[in-house]
Amino acid sequence: MKKRILSMTLVLVMAASLFAGCGNKKDDDGGDKITLTFLDKHPEEEYAGYFEQAISDFEKQNPNVKIKYENISDQAIKEKLSVLASGGDMPDVFFTWGGESLYRFARSEKALDLTPYLEKDSEWKDGFLPSFLNSATFDGKTYAVPYRSSVLYMLYNKQIFADNNIEIPKTWDEFLNVCETLKGNGVTPLAYGNSQNWYATWWVGQLNANLVDAETIKKDYNAETGDFTDPRYVKAVQYFLDLNSKGYFGENVNSKDYYQVREEFCAGKQAMMLDATSQFSFFSDAMGTDGYGFFKIPAVQGADGDPATVTGGSELYAVSAKSEHPDEAAAFIKFMTSKEQGFKQTKETALPNAIIGGVTSENADKVLEEAYVTAEDYTSIAEWLDQVVDGSVANAYMASLQEGLDGKSAADVMQDIQKAAKDVAEARK
């Protein structure tokens, strides 16, 4: 996540000296120096120091390589990568999300197959949480590595739960009963705002993973084969829309944004909020680590999906397939995703890493640590819906779900998605 709450733009250009390479530029000692271009998406002030220092440390260890670093916002990097990919001029190292966001680069041979590098270094490969590394795999090959991970949980206000004698729900029916009890007691059950319409896909993505079997999802999330005609997708949308029609989200959800309802939740105006581990530091600062807890979104009993699947995703670093310095680029992302660097990243920025045992009491608060102890038990991660599917399908999902919150039926919502998926598949033939 994450990715959706980043807003400011800051460009950081860095230089230093590094690695033995094959560039034409000479350093002061007369040796050859190569330059790697690196495009990332963490422009916020609170992250700048960490990334600057990490790059500087790599450059000091590899004095014949220079990193030319550009760090731009979430939306800006989506647009820039599309332009660069169309022109065939990709950065040596670049940020990407998992799922379709990465697969398009793999299919078009824009991303380098990193499998040989990972196979040569089993410690590096085996150090990642498997579910997050899997998000970088396409047709049996690994095209990126995760440096950041995020898992979606239901957060709850401990005081509100205690005041209303509520226990953590284990099933979807129990969850609905909790919502109804809270509403009956005059408490808005769920903090929710959808003016930034990606938020709806968090809910529906998790419901898809719970209600629809994995093989059907695999087919439909593939841009070349997806049609989304399975009726269980309609059911998933209906479950989501029911939360709104029953008043569990409160009023006027499409006029509120994520940031607004997050502040409201922290102020105790709602009992629960769906959010990602990448944002836990905000809640810890606002509520204290004793003020809130979390639980996995309850599964619908008897559904066809995997009840142990949790929604989340990786943020990844990939290497251009046309990089003139693939070995050096691979060495750089290995450094950025090492255990040592991952530990520093989480401690200094509160951005959870994707390393087994990489979030501990030494680099995270107790809530985040507990969340990652729990996350290590999950073998399957359902990637963010708005990233794992083709962009046109994602846009259809977001726009139509927003209309659904205003009264459009679940069946009509899915008709829009089906049309978008059909158009994408036809265009790829």
Element layout with pairings:
Blueprint: E1 25-26, E2 32-40, H1 45-61, E3 65-71, H2 74-87, E4 93-97, H3 100-107, H4 115-120, H5 122-126, H6 130-134, E5 137-138, E6 141-142, E7 145-157, H7 158-163, H8 172-184, E8 188-191, H9 199-211, H10 214-221, H11 231-245, H12 258-266, E9 270-276, H13 280-287, E10 292-295, E11 310-319, H14 326-336, H15 339-349, H16 366-375, E12 381-383, H17 385-388, H18 391-405, H19 410-427
Parallel strand pairs: 2-3, 2-4, 8-9, 11-12
Antiparallel strand pairs: 1-2, 4-11, 5-6, 7-9, 7-10, 7-11
What does this structure look like?
The chain has 19 helices and twelve strands. The protein has 429 residues and is of the alpha/beta class. The chain has two domains: 3-149 and 313-382, D-Maltodextrin-Binding Protein, domain 2, CATH 3.40.190; 151-311 and 384-427, Periplasmic binding protein-like II (D-Maltodextrin-Binding Protein, domain 2, 3-Layer(aba) Sandwich), CATH 3.40.190.10. The strands form two sheets. Strands 1, 2, 3, 4, 7, 8, 9, 10, 11 and 12 form a ten-stranded mixed β-sheet that branches. It has a two-stranded antiparallel sheet with strand order 5-6. Helix 1 (45-61) links the parallel strand 2 (32-40) and strand 3 (65-71). It is globular and about 70 Å long. It starts with 24 loop residues before the first strand and ends with a helix. The model is unreliable at 1-30 (pLDDT under 50).
